[in-house]
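User: Reviewer 2 asked us to show a designed sequence for the structure in our supplementary figure. I'm pasting the structure tokens here. Could you produce the per-position amino acids so we can include them in the response letter?
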């Protein structure tokens, strides 16, 4: 499970790190401060996000808050190193370092140590194995036992896996003693594949689920001609489906984004949703969508097409 102080809505740190386009430190820190003011107490970061920038931005704000009053999660499996600085990146500013996969036990400890330094905190609450899909054996045999050791020693509270892959998530739930899963893009109105195996397994084994990517990287927030899906331009067939869902929502006077952000929490295995934002305006919009009351009839109709 995740610590009880965590709220059901949290801030996902990918966009704050300048995913596809820059975000200034001032804007990023204003987002975290605004999230705090609005009562959010769950913050998800990773070394990958902005190649360390998100951890620094988020940490500078959280350092000023009571440490027991929030939950922060970070990830291991990538180390930031100068020799990888020239590799292609989805982040606009990389500051002379790039990510190198490392799921060794030593890599886990090094990654966590470096994250704590960037965050400026004495501990994190949740640590996820980040995208281990192409490194499963090393992640299972080396990284996971190290996380278990750190949990058993009280260094961290909660361990899990963060992935877009339902197969990866299911394997870790079946074969290990993780506490939670961060499943991205697979518990949405356009992709419900996480419901088939992962959620029932998590219910059975008392593993909490955090849903990420609830907008499928954009198209479910606003299915415009420039909308993105899975980090790329949305295919016409996907956008057409999203437009059908949007028209259903419009008949009830509800934004599609409100249905998208609330959808995962309809399942009892899902403990929280994290939403990536890059501005205070986006954050306020998502909080309003999350808090909006939606009629049962809307869900009945939406789920016929989702």
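Assistant: Here is a per-position design you can include in the supplement:
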């Amino acid at each position: 499970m995740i610590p009880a102080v965590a709220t059901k809505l949290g801030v996902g740190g990918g966009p704050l790190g300048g995913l596809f386009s820059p975000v200034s430190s001032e804007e990023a820190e204003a987002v975290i401060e605004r999230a705090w003011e609005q009562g959010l107490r769950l913050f998800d970061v990773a070394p990958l996000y902005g190649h360390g920038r998100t951890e620094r931005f988020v940490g500078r704000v959280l350092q000023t808050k009571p440490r027991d009053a929030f939950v922060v999660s970070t990830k291991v499996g990538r180390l930031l190193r100068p020799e990888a600085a020239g590799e292609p990146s989805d982040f606009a500013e990389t500051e002379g370092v790039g990510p190198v996969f490392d799921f060794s036990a030593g890599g886990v400890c090094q990654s966590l140590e470096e994250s704590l330094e960037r965050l400026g905190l004495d501990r994190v609450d949740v640590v996820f194995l980040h995208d281990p899909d192409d490194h499963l054996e090393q992640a299972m045999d080396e990284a996971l036992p190290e996380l278990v050791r750190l949990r058993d020693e009280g260094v961290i509270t909660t361990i899990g896996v963060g992935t877009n892959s339902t197969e990866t998530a299911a394997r870790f739930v079946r074969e290990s003693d993780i506490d939670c899963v961060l499943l991205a893009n697979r518990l949405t109105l356009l992709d419900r594949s996480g419901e088939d195996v992962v959620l029932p397994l998590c219910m059975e084994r008392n593993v909490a689920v955090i849903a990420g990517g609830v907008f499928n990287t954009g198209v479910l927030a606003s299915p415009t001609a420039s909308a993105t899906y899975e980090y790329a331009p949305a295919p016409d067939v996907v956008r057409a489906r999203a437009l059908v869902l949007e028209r259903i929502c419009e008949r009830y006077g509800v934004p599609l984004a409100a249905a998208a952000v609330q959808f995962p929490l309809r399942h009892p295995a899902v403990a929280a949703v994290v939403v990536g934002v890059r501005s205070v305006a986006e954050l306020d919009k998502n909080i309003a969508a999350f808090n909006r009351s939606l009629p049962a009839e809307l869900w009945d109709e939406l789920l016929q097409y989702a």
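For the response letter, you might also mention the following. The radius of gyration is 18 Å. The mean pLDDT is 97.
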